[in-house]
Every structure is written in structure tokens, then in C-alpha cells.
Amino acid sequence: MNIGFIGIGNMGSLMCKNLLKSECRPRVTVYDKVLCNVEAICQLGAVKAETPREVAQNSEFIITMLPESSNMKEVVLGKNGVVEAIKPGHIIVDMGTGSPTVIREIGQILAEKKAFILDAPVSGGVGKAATGELSIMASGDKATFDKCHEIFTILGKEIFHISTEVGTGHTVKIINNLVQGVNLAAICEAMVLAVKAGLDPAMFLDILNKSSGESYASRIKVPGFIFKREFSTGFKAKLQHKDMDLATTLAKELKVPVAMGNLAKEYYMAAMAAGKGDMDASVIVTLLEDITGVTVKPTP
């Protein structure tokens, strides 16, 4: 099996590692603009490509894990892009989070080449990426999905074929991330309020996680990022804002009020304005800490 992988960021690197150590031992050809990312994964057995076109020349399956839809258009449709060399019957699997409209446009162009595309965004963060237990939300032709199922089982645990209509996976994912962003903002507000009220944050979090306020943000983000004061890794605030912006734009098009989503989105914009867009999205807690004069960390 020949697999191409374009986009070797934090998540992409972990996913590549799982492919390389899987029982099927595929040949994995990788491309990323950041050369140090490529070199690190090539030390584990991947093959370096100089362009997305070269990835397409050497791969029957091409996975993309890119931050924005504009990046996806560039690597697939741009100069030296995938479309220049993709062969009939070969498959692109977009596992990033992007615009449903853009992925459909790309799919139409690939169809002219008799190639196929699935959008299969993932959820679960770097922890689940490392263990190969991501949730995968795929949409597109069912036969194409079936051909990719072995790859999906290497990367994920919960695998969904949502629809035969390309773009539906991205729709599900951006709505999921809208919920995630609202919840994280609420948890950050709650933790700051608890500390300002004189509560021990570790005690409060323990109770929260055993009560109705429990969530992914309270279980993962608070202890793993906020308490440790470690925001350099994880899901970037600017990507959280991007996903929420996609979801609120969709809501506007469909005339659905998403008041909480629009309000929470501004926290991530504020983080970007403060120069913290490349930090984990939970960094928004520091904005509230600056305003209130408290720090959310356990008592020594």
C-alpha cells in the first residue's frame, strides 16, 4: 500500500507514526513546507517528497492534514499540485477541518481526472492521535470509503461514514468544534470565577468533573494545559477561531441563530489580537486572568 501524507504538523506527525508502525507497513511519502517536520518523520521510515505533485506520483491514497481550506486548494490545485499527477482511481482523503464548499469544488475537479475524494475530519486531539483512537467523520462515495477503511482503522477508533455527499464530514466537524469552543470558553470563565471567589481550583475541578458541568474541556484542557501553564502545544487558538467562523458562517447562510457561538468566538479572536493565536485555545484563560488579577493553578 502506497500512502501519501501532506501536512506534517502535530497531529499529522502522530498519524504518520501510526501508519509507519502498522501491520500493513505501507510506503508513506510525505510533504510539508516546514522541512524539519518532514525530516523528523523520515527518520522513522517515511519518504520525503519535494512537492505535492511528487506525493501524487507515488501514492494511491493521499491524506491531507492541513490547517485551512486555502492550503488544501494550494496543494491539490496549485502549481506542482496533486492534481497534476493523480491517477484514475486514486483517492484523496482530507482529514483536516475546512469548508464544505471548497472540498466539493475540489471533488468536482478530481472527478474530471477520474479520481476520488473523501472529507474525513478527525476529533480527539493529540492524545487520541498518538494512540490511534481518533474519531473519524467521513463523507463521500461509499465504495471509496470502504477502500480507505483499513487506513481509518489504523488512525481511529470511532469511524463514521456520515453521507455519500462530500462535504458533510466537514459540516459535522465544524459544528462539533463550535460546541467545543463555546464549552471551553465557559470552562475558562468558570475556573477564573472559582479562583476569584476563593475556591481551590483543583478542588473545584474535581467536583465539576463529577457533576453536570463535566466536559472534554474540564477533563483535558484544564489539567493538561491550564493547570500546567503549558500552552505551546495542542489545538491552536487561531484554528479554533477558524473552525468556529466556518460554523457561524454556515449558520448565517441557513438563518440559524448561534448566539453563544458568536460570542465565544470573540475570545479566540482576542487571543489572536494578543499575539497568542499559535498557542493552545485554552490560552484564552490568561485573558480573563489579566482582567481579574488571578491565576488558575492548583495551590502548592
CATH class of the largest domain: Alpha Beta
**Main beta sheet strand tally, sense and closure:** 6 strands, parallel
Q: Kindly report how far apart the N and C termini lie.
A: 52 Å
Name the assembly state: single chain
Uncertain segments of ≥5 residues (pLDDT<50)?
A: none
Order of helices and strands: EHEHEHEHEHEEHEHEHHHHHH
| % residues in beta strands | 5-15%
Can you count the helices? 13
Mean pLDDT over the full residue set: 95
Question: Taking Cα atoms only, what radius of gyration do you get, to the nearest Å?
Answer: 20 Å
CATH topology of the largest domain: Rossmann fold
Q: CATH H-level name of the largest domain... which superfamily?
A: NAD(P)-binding Rossmann-like Domain
The number of distinct β-strands equals 9
Helix/sheet category: alpha/beta
TL;DR of this structure?
By secondary structure, this protein is of the alpha/beta class.
Describe this structure in words.
By secondary structure, this protein is α/β, with parallel strands linked by helices. It folds into two domains: 2-165, 3-Layer(aba) Sandwich (Rossmann fold), CATH 3.40.50.720; 171-292, Orthogonal Bundle (N-(1-d-carboxylethyl)-l-norvaline Dehydrogenase, domain 2), CATH 1.10.1040.10. The protein has helices at residues 10-20, 35-42, 52-57, 69-77, 100-112, 125-131, 142-155, 168-196, 201-208, 216-226, 237-254, 259-273, 284-292, and strands at residues 2-6, 27-31, 47-48, 61-64, 91-94, 116-119, 122-123, 134-139, 156-163. The protein has a six-stranded parallel β-sheet, sandwiched between helices. A three-stranded mixed β-sheet has the order 7-8-9. Strand 1 (2-6), helix 1 and strand 2 (27-31) form a beta-alpha-beta unit. Helix 8 (168-196) packs across helix 10 (216-226), helix 8 (168-196) crosses helix 11 and helix 11 (237-254) runs antiparallel to helix 12. The longest helix is centred in the middle third of the chain and has 29 residues, at 168-196. The mean pLDDT is 95.
